[in-house]
Structure formats: structure tokens, C-alpha cells
């Protein structure tokens, strides 16, 4: 299946591996003029016009990437954006082996630091997750000892020699597809029951190994309806290994510079295999614009904190139950914070990890704004358009809605207080005509002075129930 790679960014520890753009012409052409590169790759000794044609052709194909027949050139860049090399994954029909070839080149000024093998490992990991290609190959001339070292450091294994129709004999090194390379697929409603069962297994495993038999707090993880809610409220994906459901990951994102991993769980039988790190890399590649990642992890697991720290997360806070972690990637970040927003252009604003308690937002445009990981106690929002807003996994005790339009609003799996505290809702002088109340607790609900024309309870008109009541009581 084809997909677009125009915004592809594959994070590595010290680098960014990304798709090319037309803006790379000057830097790419400068690389192709280095004799350290063209002595080994004479085909890359291109004029500026030839380099422009090559770049334009590949950029035009970024909207039509097919993992089953890949043609994928990638730029190797330092965190500040400097292009220092490239790598490519593509067919090599003249060798007649049916495996895509991986090739690479690096500026002479940046050699000796392990950059190429780091980029190749990140790119091949990402590539295997895109489709079923069984193996990749590197072809090395006998005289090119540095290239051989890169291939070995990237996990490729010597497999004899191969003959190329045009260029003669090469040493062949092969990287086979990992046995359980994960893929991320969107969660569907029909997956909810299987995911709920998986989370029950996870909770039982956590209780047995880390919590002395007590169950971890994973809100309503055993209810399929909760996983349907996650599917609607965030980017909820199945972690699939060789066609088998191995876990789930839920990401919330503003679509801008911040994203949060709300949950990441692997089936116990898939833990300890290195899948978690591969999943983190795939998630980051799916959000190339994100510069700040955040998550929470429970203190009870001895493995969780070291795992995230190995992958670039640092602790920014903690309490008796959780560590709060952040990972910052190179690039600008624009987080806003304040107390009084009146007549302010907040469209597209990204509020993350901010204190907005007692803040005032009025007469402002807030279309497509995002507020996550924030303290909103006693927040006032007045005279603002917040159509299609979503509240999830939030404490809204004491929320007051006055003179607002709620057309199309949906309320799912809400309770009446935090930690068992019950504070009944009060609805006054509101238009609820045509609404549906399904599978809700309505014990001791009082309906007074309301227009109940057409109201039914379990399919029975209220008017008929009232008539029967009057007839029974004379």
C-alpha cells in the first residue's frame, strides 16, 4: 500500500534521519563534490543540474512510497539540521538476489563517530516495520574496509559474495528481518474485547511480579467500552507482531510540538524482547513535528524507569506512585502559559504542562487549541467558541456550564466524583429534546417541571406510565 513520506523523520540517538526536500540541493551537491565520496561512488560525481534532477525525481515520489517495492533515499542530519550524509534503500536488479540494497555515504568531516551505523540501524528498524520484506543487503568492494565496518556495526552478517552485472564481484552482507518486528495499526471497535483481555493479563502480571498481588491502577482496562473511548479520543494503535496482538499504545497530540504517550502496554509474553524500544521509535517517526514527548510511569516496576531513560526520557517530577518523564528533541518549542487571556488569538495554541488554575479566557478564538497535562481548577472560559472540544481522563468536579450550546455533545463513562466522593449533577432550564440516555445510573434522579412530551423509558412512553399510575391509584 502506498503512503506519503514527505514529513518522515526517523529519530536516532544523535541524529535525525529524514526524507529529502528540494531545499537540500546546495548541501547535497556539496557532498557529491567530495572526493572521499566520489572515489568510492563515482556515479555520485554529479553536476548541480544532475543533482537537481536526481533530487527532484525522488522528492516527487515521496507521496508514493511502497514498502514492498521501496525506493527510499534519506538525509542524515545533525540535531542542528546540517546535512552530513545520506543513505538509501532500494532495488538492485543487477545482482539478481531479490533483496533491497542499503547504501550510504558520509561527509569526510564527520567520519569516525559511528554516525552512519547509527543512522542505518534506525532506518532499517523503521523500514522493517513498514512491510513484509524478509531481508536487506549491503554490497562492499574488497578495498572498502570502512563500509564493511559500518555494515557489521549495523547488524549485517557476511553471506559470501555476489556478482553485479555491471560492477563485478562484491562481498555480500545481509540483515534479516527480526522475527518479531512490531507494526502499529489503528485500533478498531471490534478489537476492544481482545485489548481488554490483553490488559487483564498485563494487570495480573504486574500484580504478581511488582505489586505483591495488588492490581495496578489502569482505569477500566477490563471494559471494552473504555478501549472504544480511547480509539475515539486519541491515536490508539495495536502493536502487532507477525499478525498477533502484542500490545497497545495510546498517544494524545495537539498536532504541533508536543505529544504524550498516555499508555504503552505489552502482553507479558512479548516483554523483554526489545519491542518496547522499537515501538517508541515507530511512535516518534509517526509524529515528525513533535519536539517534546511526555509520559508517566509507575514507580512499582523496577524496569520501567530505566527503560525510558535509555530511550532519552528524563525525570521532571515524582510522587509516591509515579515518575513524570519528558523527552526533548532538537527544534523550537512554543509553549504558552498565562493567567488572563482576553480578546487573545489562541487558535492553535498548545498549552502543555502549565498551571492555568484560576485563569480567565474570554472573547478569544480558541479553535483547534489543545490543553494537556494542566491544572485547570476554577478556570473560567466565557464567550468563546469551543465546538467539538474533547475532555478525556479529566477531573471536572464542580464544572459549571451556563448559557452554552451543547449540540452533538456526548458524555461517556463519567462518574460523580473523585476517589469515591459523590456530587450529583444538576441540570436546569436546558434543552435536552431528542437526547438519549443509555446504560446510565439514574437511581434517585428527580425530574421536575420539564416538558416530557415523547419521553420514553425502556421503550415505554412516560405518558402511558403516568396514566397507568393514575389509574392504579384512583
CA-based shape = elongated
- The Rg value, from CA coordinates, equals 28 Å
Mean pLDDT: 82
Low-pLDDT runs: none
Number of strands: 24
Beginning-to-end CA distance, first to last residue? 71 Å
Category from helices, strands and their pairing: alpha+beta
Side-by-side strand order of the widest sheet: 11-12-13-14-15-17-16
Oligomer description: single chain
* Helical coverage, percent range: 10-25%
Strand content: 25-35%
Largest sheet features: 7 strands, mixed
User: Can you count the helices?
Assistant: 10
Give an account of the 3D structure:
It is a single chain. This protein is of the alpha+beta class and 474 residues long. It has helices at 25-32, 35-38, 48-60, 115-128, 145-153, 192-209, 224-233, 275-286, 304-310, 462-472; strands at residues 2-3, 9-11, 16-19, 65-66, 72-77, 83-90, 101-106, 135-140, 157-164, 168-176, 182-186, 235-241, 244-253, 258-266, 292-298, 314-318, 322-328, 340-342, 350-352, 360-362, 370-372, 380-382, 456-457, 460-461. The strands form 7 sheets. A 7-stranded mixed beta sheet has the order 11-12-13-14-15-17-16, with helices on both faces. Helix 1 crosses helix 3. It is elongated, with a radius of gyration of 28 Å. The chain starts with a strand and ends with a helix. 27% of the residues are buried. The mean pLDDT is 82.
Amino acid at each position: 500500500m502506498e503512503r506519503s513520506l514527505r514529513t518522515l523523520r526517523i529519530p536516532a540517538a544523535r541524529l535525525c534521519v529524514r526524507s529529502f526536500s528540494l531545499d537540500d540541493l546546495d548541501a547535497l551537491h556539496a557532498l557529491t563534490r567530495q572526493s572521499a565520496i566520489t572515489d568510492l561512488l563515482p556515479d555520485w560525481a554529479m553536476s548541480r543540474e544532475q543533482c537537481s534532477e536526481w533530487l527532484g525525481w525522488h522528492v516527487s515520489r515521496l507521496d508514493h512510497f511502497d514498502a514492498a517495492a521501496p525506493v527510499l533515499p534519506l538525509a542524515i542530519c545533525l540535531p542542528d539540521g546540517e546535512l552530513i550524509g545520506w543513505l538509501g534503500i532500494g532495488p538492485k536488479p543487477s545482482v539478481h538476489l531479490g533483496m533491497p540494497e542499503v547504501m550510504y555515504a558520509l561527509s569526510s568531516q564527520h567520519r569516525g563517530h559511528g554516525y552512519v551505523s547509527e543512522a542505518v540501524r534506525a532506518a532499517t528498524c523503521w523500514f522493517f516495520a513498514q512491510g513484509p520484506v524478509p531481508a536487506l543487503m549491503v554490497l562492499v568492494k574488497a578495498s572498502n574496509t570502512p563500509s564493511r565496518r559500518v555494515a557489521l556495526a549495523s547488524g549485517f552478517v557476511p553471506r559470501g559474495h555476489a556478482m553485479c552485472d555491471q560492477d563485478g564481484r562484491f562481498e555480500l552482507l545481509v540483515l534479516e528481518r527480526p522475527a518479531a518486528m512490531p507494526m502499529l495499526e489503528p485500533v478498531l471497535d471490534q478489537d476492544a474485547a481482545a485489548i481488554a483481555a490483553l490488559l487483564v493479563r498485563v494487570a495480573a502480571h504486574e500484580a504478581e511480579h511488582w505489586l505483591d498481588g495488588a492490581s495496578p491502577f489502569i482505569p477500566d482496562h477490563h471494559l471494552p467500552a473504555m478501549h472504544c473511548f480511547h480509539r475515539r479520543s486519541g491515536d490508539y494503535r495495536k502493536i502487532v507482531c507477525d499478525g498477533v496482538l502484542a500490545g497497545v499504545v495510546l498517544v494524545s497530540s495537539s498536532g504541533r510540538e508536543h505529544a504524550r504517550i498516555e499508555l504503552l502496554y505489552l502482553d507479558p509474553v512479548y516483554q523483554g524482547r526489545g519491542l518496547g524500544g522499537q515501538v517508541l521509535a515507530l511512535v516518534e517517526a509517526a509524529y515528525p513535528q513533535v519536539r517534546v514527548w511526555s509520559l508517566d510511569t509507575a514507580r512499582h516496576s523496577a524496569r520501567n524507569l530505566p527503560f525510558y531513560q535509555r530511550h532519552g526520557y528524563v525525570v521532571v517530577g515524582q510522587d509516591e506512585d509515579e515518575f513524570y518523564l519528558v523527552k526533548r528533541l532538537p527544534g523550537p518549542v512554543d509553549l504558552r502559559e498565562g493567567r488572563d487571556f482576553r480578546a487573545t488569538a489562541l487558535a492553535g495554541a498548545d498549552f502543555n504542562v502549565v498551571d492555568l488554575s484560576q485563569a480567565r479566557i474570554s472573547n478569544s478564538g480558541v479553535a483547534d487549541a489543545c490543553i494537556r497535562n494542566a491544572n485547570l481548577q476554577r478556570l473560567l472560559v466565557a464567550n468563546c467558541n469551543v465546538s467539538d472540544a474533547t475532555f478525556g481522563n479529566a477531573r471536572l468536579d464542580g464544572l459549571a456550564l451556563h448559557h452554552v450550546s451543547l449540540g452533538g455533545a456526548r458524555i461517556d463513562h463519567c462518574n460523580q466524583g473523585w476517589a469515591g466522593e459523590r456530587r450529583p449533577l444538576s441540570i436546569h432550564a436546558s434543552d435536552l429534546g431528542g437526547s438519549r440516555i443509555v446504560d446510565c445510573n439514574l437511581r434517585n434522579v428527580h425530574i421536575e417541571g420539564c416538558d416530557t412530551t415523547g419521553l420514553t423509558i425502556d421503550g415505554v412512553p412516560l405518558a402511558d406510565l403516568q396514566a397507568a399510575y393514575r389509574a392504579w391509584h384512583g
